[in-house]
Design brief:
single chain, 382 residues, alpha/beta, Aspartate Aminotransferase, domain 2, 14 helices, binds pyridoxal-5'-phosphate
């Protein structure tokens, strides 16, 4: 069988052109002619099926070891589609620390449409099992959470879910299929904000849903075609291109994170580091039961002696921005940026202190990344 790094470049095989082009053409056509009435055609209308998007969707399915993949105009559109397979009165158990946009979609949209939701810490299997009701249909979670990088073992949750005939739905944005393949661990549906690692260059908004079997593929395809939040042929092409270097980028990013953590660990002004990818950190054992690494995002807290707002303002190489996983280094303060929607009490309950700093480490030379952190600490000492 072809190995992962080869699949990144060669899945899917070229089969829809006879020009010898080694990449999939961008098919801009919105409609495709029938040879005659009643004749079978592969595509008839671009929302329902587009060859460029299909090539990407086959690539996504191959990388996640799934039966079928579906590409959407954003991660949120993908999550909307995956959850829209449920019905009024269905109950879903969701991870307590899920992405803010997902939290909003669940509580301000899906609840209005009659979905019941219970949030639990999915690291605690007893709590997950206790939340199961007669109308529960699925367990939805992120194996590595944002911004504290708490680890849930997919296999454990999926085993429990199967015992109760529930679907396991995993938002794998934070790890990517290079580091974790949730379907191979027993999950049924995998979701990505492809805006992050998969595209990798902060220039495409996209989402993906990959499913384990034909029955789920039918249900998600129905929603994709009915709701229509598809990925454009141009963005499908850019995303497919980004995917080819996924493992190269991540190898460098992870190596850089390890250098930065090594450096930060030696500083007396660093109070705490959150990153399950290095030994001795919480979640390390759990993560490595099934994943190859923890990705390029890590968080840390500085002691009282450094002003965290001044620190992030003083960074140059690390751009002050939300999002993650791309080639350039980014930094953000969750309390004031990604998690600003939560009240101070809610933030503290979620473990997000005002001074918590989250970095997404890019592929630059780590010496320059360290030098940037060093000068910013010097400028922000009290
Ligand atoms: C960014 C993100 C999303 C939402 O994706 P968009 O592409 O921004 O719509 C969902 N889940 C996680 C874990 C994310 O980081």
């Amino acid at each position: 069988m072809t190995r992962f790094d080869t699949k990144l470049v060669h899945a899917p095989a070229q089969h829809d052109n006879n020009t010898g082009a080694v990449t999939t053409p961008i098919y801009k056509a919105t409609t495709f002619a029938y040879p005659k009435i009643g004749a079978p055609v592969k595509d008839d209308y671009s929302r329902s099926g587009n060859p460029t998007r299909r090539a990407l969707e086959e690539q996504l399915a191959a990388l996640e070891e799934g039966t079928a993949g579906f590409a959407f105009s954003s991660g949120m559109a993908a999550i909307h589609a995956a959850l829209a397979i449920f019905e009024r009165g269905d109950h879903i158990i969701v991870g307590k620390q899920i992405y803010g946009g997902t939290f909003r979609l669940l509580h301000q949209f899906f609840e209005r449409w009659g979905l019941e939701i219970t949030a639990v810490d999915t690291r605690d299997l007893t709590a997950v099992e206790a939340a199961i009701q007669p109308n529960t249909k699925a367990i939805y979670f992120e194996p590595v959470t944002n911004p504290l990088l708490q680890v849930t073992v997919v296999r454990k949750v999926a085993t429990l879910a199967h015992q109760h005939h529930l679907l396991t739905i995993v938002d794998n944005t934070f790890l990517s299929p290079y580091l974790l393949q949730p379907l191979a661990q027993g999950a049924d549906i995998v979701i990505h904000s492809a805006t992050k690692y998969l595209s990798g260059h902060s220039d495409v908004s996209a989402g993906a849903v990959i499913v384990k079997n034909r029955e789920l593929a039918k249900r998600v395809y129905f929603i994709q075609n009915a709701l229509g939040s598809i990925l454009s042929p141009e963005d499908s092409n850019e995303l497919a291109r980004g995917i080819k270097t996924l493992s190269l980028r991540l190898d460098r990013q992870i190596a850089n994170v390890k250098e930065l953590i090594n450096y930060l660990r030696g500083l007396s002004v660093v109070e705490k580091i959150y990153y399950p990818g290095v030994e001795g950190q919480p979640g390390y054992q759990e993560l490595h039961q099934e994943a190859k690494g923890a990705g390029s995002v890590f968080s840390f807290e500085l002691t009282e002696r450094v002003d965290p707002v001044k620190f992030v303002n003083a960074l140059h190489l690390f751009k002050l921005a939300v999002s993650l996983g791309a080639v350039e280094s980014l930094v953000e303060l969750p309390s004031k940026m990604s998690h600003a929607e939560l009240s101070e009490e809610e933030q503290l309950a979620a473990g997000i202190k005002p001074g918590l700093i989250r970095m997404s480490v890019g592929i630059e030379d780590f010496h320059d990344q360290i030098a940037d952190i060093q000068q910013a600490i010097a400028k922000s000492r009290k």
